[in-house]
Amino acid sequence: MSSPKRAAKTVASKALAKSAAKPRPAALRAVKPAVVAEGSASAVAKELAATLERSIVDDKLDTVSAEALQKLMAAACRVYTARAQAGEQFTPVPRHSVTATDVMITASGLLRSADLAVFELGMWQNWTGR
User: Fold this and answer.
1) Any idea where the domains of the chain sit in the sequence?
2) Beta carbons of 30 and 86 less than 8 angstroms apart
3) pLDDT tens per residue across span 2-22
């Protein structure tokens, strides 16, 4: 008979193995921090962020399609992960720029999109110290 701890490790390790099995594009394997000039992707990203913030205030939530928003979130998630794995240390959003509700809803959606449960996140955090 398996212990609860062993069962928990098995569930979490299967989820981690599933996500680790996906190969990373070479461009995301060894990312080095770089200074990005204004007028580049950073400027475009800041402009898009401002547009999205205005769309919330103006109650025009369909400014960006669901598909486009998914692609944007996925790319931001992958870039943040690559930079964190390359050794950069910053939070994904500036402190106090989003509400606890914003974080909880987004985190729940991200976990659901990867077929993960909060339990598995807790186990992963415990194992990796992140």
Assistant:
1) 98-130
2) yes
3) 444 454 455 445 544 544 444
Please state the pTM of the whole predicted model. Answer: 0.67
Q: Show the tokens assigned to 101.
A: 């509700």
In this structure, what is the dihedral angle of CA atoms 46, 51, 54, 55, given to the nearest 10 degrees?
-140
Query: How far apart are the C-alpha atoms of 88 and 80, rounded to whole Å?
Result: 9
Q: Which amino acid belongs to residue 103?
A: V
Q: How far is CA 83 from CA 3, 8, 62, 86, 127, in A?
A: 37, 29, 30, 5, 20
pLDDT band at 77 (very low <50, low <70, confident <90, very high): very high
Tokens representing 13? Answer: 């390790």
What long-range pairs does 95-100 form, CB within 8 A, spacing at least 24? none
Residue appearing with tokens 């962020």: 49
